[in-house]
């Protein structure tokens, strides 16, 4: 058997089955089914019976949200890891956890991600203004959950689970399977945004998805994007706990938007300088 562990060496049918069984089957469908079961169980044990209003309240509660996030992360990770194990290929190389990146990337990638925050907020604000009905209220629901529960309880579910699960499947597996370059970056970034489902959330996540995909392409490693993603989500949770809202106030957005974009561009130049030695043929 070939020792080449590049995801691009996996046949298309293996990749398709992996995505159907892991990210879609266990991650998306599994999380929905399990979340429904948890919501129904919470409703029955509350003594209210199967009252529609009680079921709706339970479906928006932290236990259900946390269950969904855990199931999604498990599915996203289990698919690529399971494929690597079944085909007897090294897991770490298959999902981009080797080679180890330059330590500077683990600092620069999160800075660039955080600097894009005002851009994402502005996009969400524009979506709320021009397409106000194109939303399921996901962002408001996340803010409500984050404001209600302790930070230490929230971080594993809202930061670690998405940070590891989503990066492993989108940057570590899908992007590496496509290859390196603009096509892989765009597909990875947009697919990552689409998984957030809510149109307002999807639009706000596009800059982050494209940036993380670009970082993964430059670094040829998933570690910088995992660190950046976890950091971004953790800071967002802490910000909501501190100020009570995830969006940047409109009067402050212009200055913060320009400053953030400037910092992001600076980090991209620095990342480019650090990764000049990472050639197009360096993928293990």
Task: State the main characteristics.
284 residues, mainly alpha
Task: Please describe the topology of this protein.
Blueprint lengths: L11 H34 L6 H8 L2 H25 L4 H4 L8 H13 L1 H14 L7 H11 L2 H28 L3 H13 L4 H21 L3 H21 L6 H25 L10
Helix pairs in contact: 1-2, 1-3, 3-8, 5-10, 5-11, 5-12, 6-10, 6-12, 7-11, 8-9, 8-10, 8-11, 9-10, 10-11
Task: Tell me about this structure.
This protein is 76% helix and 0% strand. The chain is mostly helical and 284 residues long. α1 (12-45) runs antiparallel to α3 (62-86), α6 (117-130) packs antiparallel against α10 (199-219) and α8 runs antiparallel to α9 (182-194). The radius of gyration is 19 Å and the shape is globular.
Offer a concise description of the structure.
By secondary structure, this protein is an all-alpha fold.
Please identify the oligomeric state: single chain
What is the general shape?
A: globular
**Number of discrete domains:** 1
Mean pLDDT: 89
């Amino acid at each position: 058997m070939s020792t080449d562990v590049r995801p691009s060496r996996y046949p298309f049918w293996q990749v398709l089955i992996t995505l159907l069984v892991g990210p879609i089957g266990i991650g998306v469908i599994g999380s929905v089914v399990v979340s429904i079961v948890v919501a129904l169980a919470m409703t029955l044990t509350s003594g209210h019976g199967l009252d529609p209003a009680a079921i709706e309240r339970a479906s928006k509660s932290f236990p259900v949200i946390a269950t969904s996030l855990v199931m999604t992360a498990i599915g996203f990770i289990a698919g690529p890891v399971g494929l690597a194990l079944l085909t007897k290929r090294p897991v770490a190389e298959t999902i981009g956890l080797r080679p180890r990146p330059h330590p500077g990337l683990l600092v620069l990638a999160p800075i660039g991600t955080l600097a894009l925050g005002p851009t994402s907020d502005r996009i969400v604000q524009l979506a709320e203004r021009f397409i106000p009905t194109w939303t399921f209220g996901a962002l408001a629901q996340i803010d409500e959950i984050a404001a209600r529960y302790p930070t230490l309880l929230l971080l594993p579910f809202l930061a670690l689970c998405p940070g590891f699960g989503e990066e492993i499947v989108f940057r570590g597996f899908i992007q590496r399977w496509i290859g390196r370059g603009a096509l892989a970056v765009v597909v990875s970034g947009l697919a990552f945004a689409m998984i957030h489902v809510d149109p307002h959330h999807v639009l706000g996540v596009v800059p982050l998805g494209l940036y993380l995909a670009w970082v993964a392409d430059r670094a040829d490693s998933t570690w910088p994007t995992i660190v950046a993603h976890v950091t971004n989500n953790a800071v967002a949770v802490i910000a909501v706990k501190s100020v009570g809202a995830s969006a940047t106030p409109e009067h402050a957005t212009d200055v913060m938007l320009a400053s953030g974009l400037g910092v992001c561009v600076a980090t991209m130049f620095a990342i480019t300088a650090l990764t000049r030695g990472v050639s197009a043929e360096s993928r293990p």
